C-alpha cells in the first residue's frame, strides 16, 4: 500500500492531475497560486474520518475536514472553529456549542447541527476496528438545539471534553453524503468544510488536494493546491527532493539521511517541538484466548524494561535526533514524570532483570518475538529493533526473534498475534491524558489484554477532576502504575521534522506539539 518509485500515476489519475496542474500554472504570477508537492513514506488507510486512526490518513483528513474546536497554530488550548462558542452547562457532563452560521461544505451544502450530530453518531455506530471511536466512549448522546446549537451529553464527568472536540473523531462530515452505518469508500467524492477538497486519491501513490472554493476560514490557502506523493523508501523520496521533483517532505527520513540533508545547499531541515513518541506493546494475557505469550508473565515484562537500550537507540540509531523517554506522557507536558526511570533505572541492569525472572521462577533464556514495520515509522526501524535484539540477547536472559510486516498487514497482526509490537503515537490533543486514556483502561484499542481496575478508577477520576493541579496528580499516579504493570514500554520522544527546498515558506508556522502539518500555511 506504499508508493511506487517517485510519483508515478495511473493514466486516469495522471489526466486529472495534469488538468489541475495546467489550470494552476496559468496563475503562477504570485506565490499563493503555486502548487505544493509533498513527499511522504506514510500511507492512507481510509479518507473517511470514521474509518481511520493512523497518522497518514489523519494528515490528509485535516486538510479536508474541520472540527468544532481547534488547537494551534498558536494557542494549544481548544478554541472555536466550526463552533462560535462552547461551554459546560452546570457540570462536567453537559457541554453545549453554538455553531458558526453561513458555513458551506465543498459541494455547496449548508453546515448545520444535523451534520454535527450525524458525524458523532456514525463514528460510534460504525465503531471501526481502527479504534478512532475509542475517543468517544464517554459520549452518551448528542442532541440538537435548532439549526445552530448542539449539546453533548456525557456518561461521566470529563473536564477534557473540549480537547476531544479537536480530534479526528470529531471531524464533521455532510450528513447528505456520508452513510450513517458504514465507511464511505476512498474512491468516493469526500466532502468537508476544510481549506481543501479531495481531487484525486490513488492508493499507495498520490493524493491531490485543491483549494475549497467554499472555505469559510482564515487564512485562505497560501498555495494553489497540494499533491502528496507516497514513497516506499525514504532514499527514493530524498532523491526526489534533491532533484526538485517534490518541494518538501514530511514523514520520514532516516537519521543518516537527515544529517546529509542538513548539509545540502538549497535544502532546509525544519524542526519543531513535538510530543511524538515510540513505544512497545506487550501481550499481558487474555482470558478470552487459549494461546499464551511469555509476556503474559509480569516478571518477563519487567525484565525487558530493566534491559531496554533507550540511550543506545537514541544515540546510535538516531544520532541524538530523539531523546530517551521514560513515561508514556512525553517530557514537556504537564504531569510528566520519569516513571520508568524511577522503577527500572535509566541504564540497562542485567542483575535486576535476572533477579526478577528468578524470583518468578521463569526459565531463561526466554523466547520472545518482536514485531516491527519496516517503513511506516521510517527506514530506521530495522536498526532500532536490531539494537533491542542485541541488548536482550546479550544479557543471556532472552532469545529474541525479529519479524516485520508492511503496514497493511501489520495492523491486522497487532492484536491477533502474540508477541511484542512496535507502535508510535502523536497526540490527538496536547494533554497528558491523551497518552494514558487510549492505552490503559479496559477496552483500550491496543487489544493486548491489559486490564487493571485500579487503572480504570484512576482514569475515571482524572477525567472527572476539574482542578488542574488535582488532575495532574492523578496523571502522575497513573504513570507509576503503568510502569509497575508494564504492558507498554515507551522508549523515545522525537521532534516534528519537515524538509523542504529553500523556496518553500511557512512550514515553521505549523511545527508545534499538535504534530499537525497545516498545508494551507505553506507557500513557494
Overview features:
524 residues; alpha+beta; four-stranded antiparallel β-sheet; globular
Mean pLDDT score: 91
| Low confidence ranges | 1-32
Range of strand content: 15-25%
Tally of contiguous helical segments: 14
Structure class: alpha+beta
Note the overall shape: globular
Kindly report how far apart the N and C termini lie: 30 Å
Name the helicity range. Answer: 25-40%
How many E strands?
17
Write down the Rg: 23 Å
Short description:
The protein has helices at residues 11-25, 55-64, 113-126, 161-164, 234-243, 255-261, 298-307, 310-317, 339-344, 350-359, 381-394, 407-413, 453-463, 468-485; strands at residues 35-40, 69-70, 79-80, 83-88, 94-99, 139-144, 149-154, 196-202, 206-211, 225-230, 248-250, 267-282, 323-324, 366-372, 398-404, 420-425, 488-501. The chain is an alpha+beta fold and 524 residues long. Strands 1, 8, 9, 10, 11, 12, 13, 14, 15, 16 and 17 form an 11-stranded mixed β-sheet that branches.
Amino acid at each position: 500500500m506504499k508508493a511506487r518509485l517517485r510519483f508515478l500515476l495511473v493514466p486516469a489519475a495522471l489526466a486529472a492531475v495534469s488538468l489541475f496542474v495546467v489550470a494552476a500554472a496559468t496563475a503562477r504570477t504570485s506565490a499563493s497560486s503555486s502548487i505544493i508537492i509533498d513527499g511522504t513514506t506514510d500511507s492512507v488507510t481510509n479518507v473517511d474520518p470514521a474509518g481511520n486512526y493512523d497518522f497518514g490518513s489523519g494528515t490528509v483528513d485535516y486538510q479536508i475536514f474541520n472540527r468544532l474546536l481547534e488547537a494551534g497554530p498558536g494557542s494549544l488550548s481548544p478554541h472555536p472553529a466550526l463552533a462560535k462558542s462552547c461551554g459546560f452547562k452546570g457540570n462536567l457532563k453537559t457541554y453545549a456549542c453554538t455553531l458558526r452560521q453561513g458555513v458551506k461544505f465543498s459541494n455547496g451544502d449548508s453546515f448545520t447541527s444535523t451534520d454535527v450530530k450525524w458525524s458523532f453518531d456514525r463514528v460510534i455506530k460504525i465503531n471501526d476496528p481502527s479504534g478512532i471511536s475509542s475517543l468517544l466512549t464517554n459520549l452518551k448522546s448528542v442532541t440538537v438545539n435548532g439549526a445552530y446549537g448542539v449539546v453533548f451529553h456525557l456518561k461521566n464527568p470529563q473536564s477534557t471534553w473540549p480537547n476531544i472536540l479537536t480530534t479526528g473523531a470529531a471531524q464533521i462530515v455532510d450528513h447528505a453524503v456520508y452513510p450513517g452505518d458504514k465507511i464511505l469508500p476512498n474512491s468516493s467524492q469526500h466532502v468537508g468544510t476544510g481549506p481543501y477538497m479531495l481531487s484525486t486519491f490513488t492508493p499507495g501513490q498520490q493524493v491531490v488536494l485543491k483549494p475549497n472554493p467554499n472555505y469559510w476560514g482564515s487564512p485562505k490557502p497560501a498555495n494553489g493546491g497540494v499533491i502528496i506523493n507516497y514513497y516506499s523508501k525514504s532514499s527514493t523520496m530524498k532523491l526526489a527532493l534533491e532533484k526538485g521533483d517534490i518541494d518538501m517532505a514530511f514523514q520520514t527520513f532516516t537519521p543518516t539521511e537527515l544529517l546529509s540533508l542538513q548539509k545540502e545547499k538549497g535544502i532546509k531541515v525544519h524542526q519543531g517541538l513535538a510530543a511524538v513518541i515510540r513505544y512497545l506493546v506487550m501481550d499481558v494475557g487474555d482470558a478470552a484466548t487459549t494461546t499464551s505469550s511469555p509476556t503474559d508473565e509480569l516478571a518477563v515484562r519487567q525484565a525487558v524494561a530493566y534491559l531496554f537500550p533507550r540511550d543506545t537507540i537514541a544515540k546510535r540509531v538516531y544520532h541524538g535526533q530523539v531523546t530517551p523517554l521514560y513515561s508514556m506522557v512525553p517530557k514537556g507536558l504537564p504531569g510528566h514524570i520519569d516513571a520508568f526511570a524511577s522503577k527500572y533505572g535509566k541504564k540497562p541492569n542485567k542483575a535486576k532483570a535476572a533477579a526478577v525472572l528468578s524470583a518468578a521462577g521463569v526459565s531463561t533464556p526466554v523466547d520472545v518475538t518482536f514485531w516491527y514495520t519496516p517503513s511506516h515509522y521510517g527506514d530506521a526501524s530495522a536498526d532500532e529493533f536490531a539494537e533491542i535484539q542485541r541488548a536482550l540477547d546479550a544479557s543471556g536472559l532472552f532469545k529474541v526473534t525479529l519479524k516485520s510486516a508492511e503496514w497493511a498487514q501489520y495492523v491486522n497482526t497487532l492484536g491477533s498475534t502474540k508477541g511484542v509490537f512496535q507502535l508510535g503515537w502523536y497526540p490527538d490533543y496536547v494533554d497528558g491524558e491523551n497518552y494514558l486514556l487510549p492505552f490503559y483502561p479496559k477496552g483500550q484499542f491496543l487489544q493486548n489484554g491489559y486490564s487493571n481496575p485500579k487503572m480504570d478508577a484512576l482514569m475515571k477520576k482524572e477525567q472527572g477532576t476539574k482542578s488542574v493541579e488535582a488532575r495532574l496528580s492523578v496523571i502522575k499516579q497513573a504513570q507509576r502504575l503503568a510502569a509497575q504493570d508494564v504492558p507498554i514500554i515507551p522508549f523515545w520522544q522525537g521532534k516534528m521534522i519537515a524538509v523542504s527546498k529553500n523556496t518553500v515558506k511557512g512550514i515553521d508556522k505549523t511545527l508545534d506539539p499538535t504534530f499537525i502539518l497545516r498545508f494551507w500555511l505553506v507557500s513557494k
